Amino acid sequence: MEYHSQMTQEEEALLIEEKFQEMLSAYKNSPHRQKIEIITKAFNFAKKAHQGVRRRSGEPYILHPIAVANIVISEMGLGSTSICSALLHDVVEDTDYTVEDIENMFGHKIASIVDGLTKISGGVFGAQASLQAENFRKLLLTMSEDIRVILIKIADRLHNMRTLSSMLPAKQLKITGETQYLYAPLAQRLGLFAIKTELEDLCFKYEQPEAFAQIEKKIEEIKPHLKTIFDEFSQPIALKLKEMEYDFDLQMRIKSPSSIWQKMQRKHIPFEEVFDLLAVRIVFTPKEGLSEKEQCWIIYSVITNLYKPHPERLRDWVTTPKANGYEALHVTVMGNSGNWEEVQIRSRRMNEIAEKGLAAHWKYKTGESEDSELDKWLKTIKELLEHPEPNAIDFMDTFKLNLFASEIFVFTPKGDIRTIPQGATALDFAFYLHSDIALQCIGAKVNHKLVPLSYVLNSGDQVELLTSKKQQPQKEWIDIVTTAKAKSKLRLIFKKEIKGITKHGESLVEEELKKINLTVNSQTMPELLSYYKFAHADHLFYAAGRGILNLNDIQNVIFKKKSQSRWMKIWKLQFGSSSKKDKRTSVDLDKSKTIQLSDNSNNISYRIADCCRPIPGDEVLGIMEDDNSITIHKSNCPVALKLKSSSGNRLRSVEWITHKVLSFPAILEIKGIDEVGVLKEIARIISEDYSINISKINIETKDGIFDGILHIYVYSVEDINNLCMNLLKIAAVKSVNRIDAVD
């Protein structure tokens, strides 16, 4: 039921009661011990506290805590303590009530969770990034004490994303930025896959509405066809499992719009070439007498007797579960339609853990003596908090190393299995086992062969560490290790020394910039970080101080390119309305208005970001610089994603209105069959049919196939789309895609 602003007070009261009863009904249907009285008490307390307050959409504020509580019970499976905390989560921040008031009425547990949520309110990042990063540290501290804090925070963010349409465009970009940057990965790390997917889809919907709508439309068009494939594929499996007297469900899973889009971008392919749209999920009730693992493999045998399996696409997360608790057996087989079909095999317990994450994981954790990988991850967070980075933002970056890492499995010399992040080195593994071992490490044997500490481990490696009491930790080790735990420990050891090297590196960078009349500021730093591929300025300065960067590139490559390239000049843009009055905008631009990118106005300067090279027609956003100019990024640009998180208050909503006056650079990748005259035909279409300038062309041929990169100047995305369609009409051309940069 949607909210209508014309509602009377009586209708609003009925709506509030209806939503509360919906949430209560979900709770009554759960296996939790029923504590209706305290939940009702929390609801009445919150309703009174938020009386008369409304959300930006106009609805009564109390509907938000009710919705968060509903997510907590229905989608996470949490109990009365979490439900009460969700209902009360904004009371201390938004009203005159204190944490002490909550404790007096609801007890210490609920009060401590509400206190944790209050400390981290207002988003992970606010106007002052370092202050908000400090709040982020508080979030982790509370999370390590009571995981329910972060679970309720994720539920709060999910409801905010579901109701994002009522927010201003710039605010939408800030919220989607930090959601992608932190909340979606956190949801995945905590096993909340359905929530992680929905968060990513909502980010995609608000950041690139046209692309999202197109993919949704194409999914709807192809659904009947996918349903037919699913029915034909699953029927023989269902018959066989019924013969074996299994109680099971067969589910059709369609890839989410954001996952489809990410694959299209990553592989430079159109929607029609995304072949793994469909997955088949088998959820079964285990029979007595056999373990779940054995029965997963029995069902695997049923499937592979019916269909031929792909030899390299078996994923066994039953023997070794993922670090977030996920268990399943995935097999990819060749279906009758000629497409590879993924089949996911799970018990009902595994399925509940996959759907509801942490709550289900601990619900089933009875009598386990050994910590799960999820428990170990939470212990790692506690360790990081014991020795945090002096700079709060550095600490956040260090934590993210742990958050985003995929896992691999390696063995100790005795055959014990250990889970470590993908990309970890032998030295990382030493720190994983114990810091004392790592600090005396001189090398390792991997699969009985001697390797250096920098050796990157692979899944299945057996690792033996070699130590010496004479060994001392080396500064170079910071460049060798990739895990958060190792980096944090080494930075603590070399803290003073690093500070001096970083300061020296900063002065070297400043000297180079000074030669071309530039300084270290919010305009030059993103360019330097992007070029040298560093996430943070201090990391770049440290590398410069160590002498491992070619700083000559600052004047010879990075900024020289801008001064020579005609599209990198500073253009003027029109702000707000299209009035022709010569009215200068104030320094503090109205964030609620959309800035229109034009080629003939003179109010504000803007420049095109070198990292993603947007052109008219692309979904874009603006970052306000210190000099009041705007830097334009594509909405899905990785650099912009980081800026959206760390500089949310500088975001501006922008749109193109410039056409056919300024030309912008673009890069096309073109592939096809090498035939006589094909290059001539490509050049003719570009130059004659479209009058598009080619600045550079590079074509390579091998074994009868050509692969080319074309650097061209265009006016808009429409030009590129039309050009690509016409180039594809050449019989020998098999694919044409726009790319952001050449590796």
Properties at a glance:
743 residues, alpha+beta, Hypothetical protein af1432, Beta Polymerase, domain 2, Ubiquitin-like (UB roll), 6 domains, six-stranded mixed sheet, six-stranded mixed beta barrel, 21 strands
- Give the radius of gyration: 28 Å
Please report the total strand number as a whole number. Answer: 21
Distance between the termini: 49 Å
Name the poorly predicted regions. Answer: 123-132, 561-589
CATH H-level superfamily title of the largest domain: Hypothetical protein af1432
CATH architecture of the largest domain: Orthogonal Bundle
Residue share in β-strands: 15-25%
From the 3D structure, determine the CATH topology of the largest domain.
Hypothetical protein af1432
CATH class annotation of the largest domain:
Mainly Alpha
Portion in helices = 40-55%
Shape call: globular
The major pleated sheet works out as: 6 strands, mixed
Map the helices and strands.
Layout: H1 9-28, H2 36-49, H3 63-74, H4 80-87, H5 91-94, H6 99-106, H7 108-119, H8 129-145, H9 148-162, H10 169-189, H11 193-207, H12 209-243, E1 247-254, H13 257-267, E2 278-285, H14 292-306, E3 308-309, E4 315-316, E5 329-334, E6 340-347, H15 348-356, H16 358-363, H17 373-386, H18 392-404, E7 407-411, E8 417-421, H19 426-433, H20 435-439, E9 441-446, E10 449-451, E11 463-467, H21 477-480, H22 484-493, H23 495-514, H24 524-532, H25 537-545, H26 553-564, E12 571-575, E13 595-597, E14 604-608, E15 620-624, E16 630-634, H27 638-646, E17 651-656, E18 664-673, H28 678-689, E19 693-702, E20 705-714, H29 717-727, E21 733-739
Parallel strand pairs: 2-6, 13-17, 14-16
Antiparallel strand pairs: 1-2, 3-5, 4-5, 5-6, 7-8, 9-10, 9-11, 12-13, 12-14, 15-16, 15-17, 18-20, 18-21, 19-20
